[in-house]
Amino acid sequence: MIDNEYLDSKAWPFVEARELLKKRQKLLEKKGYALFQTGYGPSGLPHIGTFGEVCRTTMVIQAFKKISDIPTKLFTFSDDMDGLRKVPENISNKEVLEKNLHKPLTSVPDPFGKFNSFGEHNNEMLKSFLDQFGFSYEFKSSTVLYKSGVFDETLKLILSNYDKIMNIILPTLGPERRKSYSPFLPICPETGHVLEVAILEKNIASHEIVYESNGKKFSTPITGGNCKLQWKVDWAMRWHALEVDFEMYGKDLIPSAELSYEICKVLGHKPPSGFYYELFLDEKGEKISKSKGNGISIEDWLKYASPESLALYMYQNPQRAKKLYPQVIPKAVDEYLSFLDKFSEQPMKEQLGNPVWHVHDGNPPQEKNVITFGVLLNLVSASNADNEEVLWKFIKNFKSDVNRTEHPILEKLIKNAISYFNDHVKIHKKYRSANELEKKALLELTQEIQKMPEGLSPEEMQTIVFTVGKNYYAKEELRNWFKAIYEVVFGDEQGPRMGSFICFFGKQETIDLINNSLNRK
Q1: CA distances (Å), origin 445, targets 88, 120, 224, 466, 490
Q2: Cys-Cys with 495: which of 17, 149, 471, 490 at CB 3.0–4.6 Å?
Q3: What CATH class has 429-521?
């Protein structure tokens, strides 16, 4: 029996799962399963946006399984028969690619020298990092499916409906593009290039097309991998041939999706349920691109944070544009830890709205948070710690009963904090000297820390820090007090919650840190 909490949850994966079931239940029951699909264009190395699409689709699948007994499948489709249009900026041995422009990606030699082709290399990179995150999926290669004949019947159907499809696409194109546009892209038998040429003749009975290239006429079958499709038509063809029920896509592809929906209807197939997500941006606000290699890579994120924190970042506000660069990581990590802490105390309705339910498929770890990533970074900074043992010492100062073996999340967090500090915090530190008012306030703070009795909680210590600030700053200017602490003592515009920091770093150590900051030349 399905729990009503699942049917009422406002978490977006449940909203999408219910919508899918509502629209396609009879189709799904007849077919015997629900097919979810994600797409990947292997013209560049896989990037974090590709991960995001698989991660978010998996979250919808998890929700779907809670509201239906219909089995599910996930196809991760690689459009690896597409022609290489340009050389990615972040690739070595570019001359290998430059010599093979316009050929299918699976016919372009691998510039890394590891696989049979550039397309295969990028496909393997994709599968490798999806496997690293434990996703359950079936990989599908465009080249394999075209050449093996899986798409042949749908290709014939497209040829039969050629004029109807052209009537859908042509109004969206400029005058010049209309002259050469065709849904079919033949593979030239002489150059091996994927050609964008007008079709001169079409023979529906023999499933052949005639086109001209370099002054010569060619006749070729549309089946068996001799042609591929322009991608908007290819998208619709895939939905029909594979019977796709759900697919996500970036906001920039909404117009393309609308065209593909219309083509899918022409082919006699109900288009899949769709869900658009906003784009990821780099620190400059520019769209993350496979070819540019801007933004942050999967490898970078995992150097500094857990895969779970990345999944949480993907879960939150998928239809809002978000920046993806190293400086977003600490906040993402601490939000993950905060949501994890709350989960066990929440009723089921609230748990379903808690991102960690979706990150962990309803079964998050039970480990309680001991320290935030932000405070850890400041401990590394204040102590110049370059090894984990120093940080464990500070943690045990505050919480002596912490057992390392019972805190695998914290163990990894400490390693991450050292790496992140060294790569992204240390180089940006800019200490400034305190003015006379700030000196007086900081000296008074050292005196109050000295007086603190043993056993004070972080909240009680924080109140004392606030009280000192009130002696020197008006209520509406108290933020300047903390800004002064951060800039003078930590060399940053932002810093830790001071009560928590003092608890972990130690009272005398904090006093020494402040005094050293005041004496810094």
Answers
A1: 55, 61, 78, 10, 15
A2: 490
A3: mainly alpha
